[in-house]
Design goal:
- There is one protein chain.
- A four-stranded antiparallel β-sheet has the order 1-2-3-4.
- The chain is α+β, with helices and mostly antiparallel strands.
- It is about 15% helix and about 15% strand.
- The radius of gyration is 26 Å and the shape is globular.
Amino acid sequence: MHIWFDRREIVSPRRQPQSPVGSPQPYVPSPPRSSALFASPEDDPTPMRAESLVEFVHEFNRGNVGELKSTTGGTMDTTFPKCKLVIWSRTKTINNANNGSQKLTSPVVLRFIIPDVLTAYISLIFTKLEDPLIVESVAAFGPRERKLPHEQSDYLALQGLSQHITKVILSHPRVPFQILMSVLVSYRGLFVDRCTSCQRVLSAEGHIPPVARIWVPKGTEEAASSILKTDDAESAGAADHASGHWEPRHAICLYN
């Protein structure tokens, strides 16, 4: 018995027509980019010990603190006359700690002030005075807000700033205190700095200033780009230093 097939009944699969030039292509997600919030850990300064905190506060307020960030083995020639740092407490006895006549106890809270820009509370923990300081939390508020360190700002911009720094601390729990201070100082131009990615002061979504920061070492392609300037002075958030600079970014532009 023979079975015959009609070749005309055999249907071959049709080939998909090629997309014409210029037609939309299927979306292929780009690979995730690694964070560039800090330089490599081997370039970090020596973590500050708790016993050196009071002297650091005094030198910071005098404008003599230069070694806040080092990525080339040197120090940054940086002074901050417009910023103020004090040891904070709800009791009056903390004045003795600021004067160095009383030992610090963990946790210790610092109040960082940029006049007319923000006030930030920094909580530091340690076990012994000889131990390195560990940053526990940072909360930013408006300069005229009367809030406690554990509360939240009423301003969305400062809420976003606190959330960004919190994420940084969670991803880099052993970040030296000096580096955190250099990040906070870069917010002097928070409301005038332009995002180095989209070139806008306020984000297209949410109308928030660039509250995120990334560190760009000297010698990289990004560091060679011109530093954005305001109408009157150089952008404080992207100030150029001997070993690099902090670049202001919107949270949505952080990896662009």
